[in-house]
Amino acid sequence: MAQSYKSLKEDFVSNLSGGGIWEINYVTAVAPSRRSFFVDYGSAAFTTDFLLNVGAILAATTIYSSAPTALNTLLILPAIALHVLPRGSRTRSKKSTHPVLTNGEPEKRQGQASMDLLPERPFITHYRGSMMVVTCVAILAVDFRVFPRRFAKVETWGTSLMDMGVGSFVFAAGLSSARPVLKAREAGKTTSLGASLTAAARHSVPLFMLGLVRLYSIKGLDYAEHVSEYGVHWNFFFTLALLPAFAAIIQTLPRSLFSAHFIALSATLVYQ
Prior knowledge:
mainly alpha
């Protein structure tokens, strides 16, 4: 019985061909819909945030999967209405979020922020958060029929929503790791390969341990697995664990001999 259930589960996520790219764009367009509507973050604000950040994505990948444009319209129309309404009728004047200190610290921080050539961008944080929510929702929902099969990972050729997972994580990791590297180069600082690998190990070791836990859990419990996805022993955590070390090696290479553009293009051509 257990073997039959395992085979059925593996067949349910196998031999898929994906869907259209524009449909994926429409489905993921519900993610950038968060907006702070409340001065004080209480239970109402938390509920609104949860419905926009999690509920909308869950609906787009399940019950609204065949009509993502309608869901986007339902999210955009209230936002337009809130924007058109007079400011005094929709919210109170917001209080300053910066503490008032007597030693001039806020002014100092403001001056440092204005001089920063690479300031932190909130949209990158929001992109990474939305990507994590989409990933968690897809992984949990893929085993149910309410989740369309065209959103699950394809077997050989095609494009699907879940196929964007690994690429999105790699892209987000590049965005977050590029900022300190560029700031160090702007300041003229250099880091040895050993120091870079040591710093990368702090991020790689936990991911590597998670990969081992998943590997032994899957094999020990004889859980259903899609072998053509990562192979017999590989998994997503091992891929993420190698990224910091690989990035550290590239960053320490002489820029006169190797450029990031050349390495990226070469890796893409070799993969294709």
